[in-house]
Amino acid sequence: MPASSSEASPRNPSQYTKVVEADALLIVDGIAIVVEAKAVALTPGARAGEGRHLRGNLRRIVTEAAHQAQRLRDCIEHDRGLRMRDGTWLDLSQISEVRTVAVSLEDLSGISTTTAQLAAAGLLPNGAYPWTVSVHDLRVIAELIDRPAELLVYLRRRTAAETTIKYQAVDELDLFLHFFQRGLYVEPDPASTAQELPQFGQPTVAAQRRRAAEHRGLVLSHTTSSTRGTSTASATPSPRPANR
Fold first, then answer.
1. Distance between CA 239 and CA 31 in Å, rounded?
2. 48, 148, 173, 236: most buried by Cβ count inside 10 Å?
3. How many helices (H) and strands (E) does the chain have?
């Protein structure tokens, strides 16, 4: 990737001198998913709720992973490919969408689900938010998903700017199971939609009413019995949740 502003303008991947690495890059057809993982543990001070310690820990766990994933995303979107360590070129010109995932070994329940608040606090980059998730929740979600398209739709809706403002949840699995049951959908702003897609005309009264009817809500626990079927410790597993 570019090591300086002179290498970044104009962009020429063959001239880049900075070598970086990524934890995982998943490519399926025109979709790329960049994964960065952090094994940093919360310190006792952060667990006790001390603001300075907690913020410092979150920067090491969430912020660094998000920025590293965003860095690779920018290279894919601007250069349409990646220069590998051995000098070969990985052509990614077919990629039309890039999603980023920041995985933590630490359980950050009550924190990782507040994407909008993390961005407002400067702990996540503005704009293209990553999916912040613990490795345990990621494993359970991977077991519950039957089709890759379900994960992609969840990624799109989970990382939308307004999702964690409308849907407030302590646990990632509650958000995911709410997605299975109700879609985790946020009605788009008609004014913004009309500005981005002027060919569809001015906002309709019905669209404005649907938007006005949007309210914040607390996602209650869905995990008491819904995810018991993923545990080998249960002698009588519950029915496996499915997307409705």
1. 31
2. 173
3. 11, 8
